[in-house]
Amino acid sequence: MIELQRISCEEFKAAEKMPLVVVLDDVRSMNNIGSVFRTSDAFLVHHICLCGITATPPHTDIHKTALGAEDSVDWVHYDDVCEAIVDLRSRGYTICAIEQVQGSISLPDFQIEGDKKYAIILGNEVKGVKQEAVDMSDCCIEIPQCGTKHSLNVSISAGLVMWEFFKTFTKSC
């Protein structure tokens, strides 16, 4: 870790974060949850909201893919995603559901404004983001896909979207 010039968990906690919150709603797979923690650590995400049935740390199955990021990245649990949306909006976040819906904005076309705070909502592996959460969102972002499948794994989707925000908000590590 020293040779890679990685920061410690304590240094991560004190580091300036992107103004981005990742919201996971009813994500079933603990491997997906752990992967989102690990990617959130890599890209300096402010914190993660774990909603509904989404498991919370500590858990050995989350740790398998998080590899300790569940200790560095702050998180909070909400019983319901709508509760999280109301709380985040009250703190000035722009709410973006990551979902394929009529009127969604293609990720490459989404204009990230450097003076705003954002929350991205990712939903259940089968059902996606709940309609109620989509309706409460300020916008929906869709990841363009050209193959035969019409969806991506939730942790892959999270990583792609986080990367776009990271490119805008972070000059270098």
State the gist of this model.
By secondary structure, this protein is of the alpha/beta class. 36% of the residues lie in helices and 21% in strands.
Give the C-alpha Rg.
15 Å
Number of domains: 1
**Mean pLDDT over all positions:** 95
What general form does the structure show?
Answer: globular
The succession of helices and strands, N to C, reads: HEHEHHEHEEEHEH
State the share of residues found in helices, binned by percent. Answer: 25-40%
CATH superfamily: SPOUT methyltransferase, trefoil knot domain
Q: Classify the fold: give the CATH topology.
A: Alpha/beta knot
Portion of residues in beta strands equals: 15-25%
Structural class: alpha/beta
Q: CATH class, anyone?
A: Alpha Beta
**What is the architecture at the second tier of CATH?**
3-Layer(aba) Sandwich
Low-confidence stretches: none
Figure out the total of helices.
7
Question: How far is the N terminus from the C terminus?
Answer: 15 Å
Strand count, sense and barrel status of the largest sheet are: 7 strands, parallel
Strand order of the largest sheet: 3-2-1-6-4-7-5
Strand segment count: 7
